[in-house]
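Lecture notes, unit on binding sites. The following record was shown on slide 14. It pairs a sequence with pyridoxal-5'-phosphate.
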Amino acid sequence: MIVRIRADLDRLPGYVPGRTVAGAIKLASNEVSLGPLPSVVEAVARAATEMNRYPDTAATALVDRLATRLDVAPERIAVGCGSVTLCQQLVQATCGEADEVVFAWRSFEAYPLIVQVVGARQTRVPLTEEHGLDLDAMARAITPATRLVFVCNPNNPTGTPLRRDALERFLDTVPRDVLVVLDEAYREFVTDPDVPDGVELARGRDNVAVLRTFSKAYGLAGLRVGYCVAAPEVAAALRKVYVPFSVNSVAQAAAIASLDAEDELLARCRDVVAERERVRSELLSLGFAVPETQANFVWLPLGERTQAFNEHCLENKVVVRAFAGDGARVTIGTREENDAFLSAARSFPG
Ligand SMILES: Cc1ncc(COP(=O)(O)O)c(C=O)c1O
């Protein structure tokens, strides 16, 4: 092979998606278990009849709809092919090779990969003993080279939330020329009123960008659409590094139909939340350590026992997301799916 591929890609581990195993219950990717609503399927079918045409690359109808929904100017919204792509666009828009991105670790698995692909430097800040983001340490990790900080709230994979006072204090200490990205992929599952809405925090702060997605609560993981709310200049920069047409027309139509059906979808989230509390308290009573969670998953910090737990769940036909040596993340599914998982957890030799 004589093609000259970037040498640093040899050191890049590929993104590891949650596994799908035939005949097993998948609780590995923080999706919602229930299928799409009929109204959304109809919108998808209608949009599919025009798929010979390119999509509206500006996603005008979706952006306008989100702007009204969130009460922000449309200039402050940029859409992306899933919020993971927006993470990449944000790093591309802010960082060159001498620049740094700060994020907690462990957090969303894509952050280190994206930073490396863009070619910037990264600083990982360990979580607290309680498996939450250590905002004081993150603030200390910011240097003159820092351009962007990812703050995942609630954090994936631990589920732990940041509360208003702590987050506002952190935002007040971050230099104004450093972009803080509040990644709120799981916002719709948050029930604690002290966990702030990032869009509200971003209103008075030009250096705060908020990421949201249609993949989780809105059930469109397979269609790939997310959005960012930020200062107009940041949103404009995101549009510059956007791969043209990457949010396709079917995804745009499905996102709008999902906003039309929002009440029904958010009611489903409330069911997930009730199940989350049931699963967590059952796990606690079985003797597992489970940090508090405001997301649609629970985190079991099993350390060296993680791999054995993963295999045990697989033997019981439940697929969880294991991070070897660290812990297992388990998505909250339907009551039956959660019961299957709890039954596996119960028989795990402790
Ligand atoms: C914290 C966080 N951010 C972003 C994403 C990306 O979601 P999507 O690209 O499907 O919008 C995920 C997906 O798991 C996530 O957990």
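Take-home: Residues 8 and 116 are 8 Å apart (CA to CA).
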